[in-house]
Give the backbone structure.
Amino acid sequence: MQTKNNHLVIMAGGVGSRFWPMSNEDRPKQFLDILGKGRTLIQLTLDRFAELIPIENVWVVTGERYADITREQLPEIPESNILLEPCRRNTAPCICYVSWKIKKLNPMANIVVTPADHYVEDIKSFKEAVGEAMEFTAETDAIVTLGVKPTHPETGYGYIKADLAFSSSRKKHVFRVDGFKEKPDLKTAEAYISEPNYLWNSGIFVWSVSTIVNAFRVYQPTMSKGFEALAKVFGTAEERKAINAFYEKCESISVDYAIMENAEEVFVRPIDVGWSDLGTWGSLLKQSPHDDHGNALIGKDVAVFDTQNCIIHTTENKRVVVQGLDGYIVAEKDGVLMICKLSEEQRIKLFH
Amino acid sequence: MQTKNNHLVIMAGGVGSRFWPMSNEDRPKQFLDILGKGRTLIQLTLDRFAELIPIENVWVVTGERYADITREQLPEIPESNILLEPCRRNTAPCICYVSWKIKKLNPMANIVVTPADHYVEDIKSFKEAVGEAMEFTAETDAIVTLGVKPTHPETGYGYIKADLAFSSSRKKHVFRVDGFKEKPDLKTAEAYISEPNYLWNSGIFVWSVSTIVNAFRVYQPTMSKGFEALAKVFGTAEERKAINAFYEKCESISVDYAIMENAEEVFVRPIDVGWSDLGTWGSLLKQSPHDDHGNALIGKDVAVFDTQNCIIHTTENKRVVVQGLDGYIVAEKDGVLMICKLSEEQRIKLFH
């Protein structure tokens, strides 16, 4: 349910080129229709929250070079809600800035913060979870993270240890957090997922603006004071210049380190919604529609013979015929063709 | 050595699309730089004979739809020497037509006939062989075929059985032919190549114009009379129309069946010059320059990792990165990408 206090912050600062040649620094993953759904990941992100958040309360924080593509892909959003970072400083400065912006407009605001480049399959359950978390944070000083029910012992994510015995009296699906765990090794990850109370840290946060601003005041006083001092120029012609000057000086730190691991009233709302951060070609293959042989074929005219477990991604108007491959990535974009074993995808960064 | 009587006939009627997507009906193999040498196969064919044949004596017989591309690729050749077939009728009508054309201009002409889409590595030895054969046919009524010393028991070629005991008194490398053999099965091919006197039929012929015209008169009298009757309109505005009408009626038959297997004064000049008809992707891989891992990489910017025995062919201005392939064809052209195991290349015709 939308309320006028509900705000959405889409963090779209990623410059990843893990999906090269599909993604590159000119067009990172969030601006691509990487799943072949007719909408880019940032558009799908907006869609996912549309029923919960009035469009005028949607904020995007992204890099300066992505200003045009953001406006182009999300024309519904007020232009003044697109905040541009002059440099990359991880998530804490981004969230601190937008929180002060929102606070100035509405001190009663209730905020959900999300990465722009994740995927959720079961949107209905996801909305229920976010809605519940927002109802909770509207009434409390809680910081809530969505925690993903693990499907495998992933070593690429941080984990949240939940205290399942201690659910909120207000919301029975919201639990107190026992601790945040760094990316584990495989053995530790296996131990985690053998227990019911370890969840993946999704990087999706819910809090009221007063809660998060207070948390920054306490745990990141320098950063918080800096943005607070700039609040007087927010909405004026001076904002960009002042922000650019201050941003450079900000510490590059994640909100997890800066706030979450220190804060006291931290809760987690477990979700089991087919979430993926689409962090690897393998996860992309998993989330994309398959043929009977486990191939994800994204493109207008892709034909395969004797081929299985491949992801073939050609968003251009190409005819593609593949025979005799098992477990490969075939990706083509902008005059670049890449063929690589899925099991070797970590080497892609060396190729471009 | 050039003499003004020497003529070259380049048969460029092939429409093969075995090298799809590189080749297709709009641009068959002879018009492609399939080896990445900066010259197309028909241009390399002309180059190969340049020292032997005056340029004004070079003839090309090709399909009507290839008139423009032929003129574009061989601008040195007089336009009137490009003969256009209205339909495909195999090699005999093509050779009969051009032989009557040449005879009308020069009854003393001495002719070498070659396909447009073969490759020869050792051009120096090849020129010696052709020169010797032409000297022989200038003095005799002989029909000479170049016979390729086999390198493996190929089942895709016809074989020539030479009588090595009976070399010409005039040319010690020219031998009488004992017989032409159809494409053999593997066992027969293995038996052939275990003997020194079996050679591959290259489809390259040498004869004087009077010899070949007489042979057509004897063995293909209807065809021969037809073209002879049209000789009076050769070089006039009526030629095309008259040829088009007659060509339709010609039997579709190869010069091998029509003439060679019947003629009496048939000789063979063995060659061992790195010849290939470039009939398969495998032969293309063999003839192309390799890296240390047996890869033929044709394209402006092709990088491979953990890859061997692959042919990667992208004539367009593409960046290509391939990891982890062994024994594959990767070919891209005009918006079409094909990946196929070399061992399955016979299936390519099913793909397009």
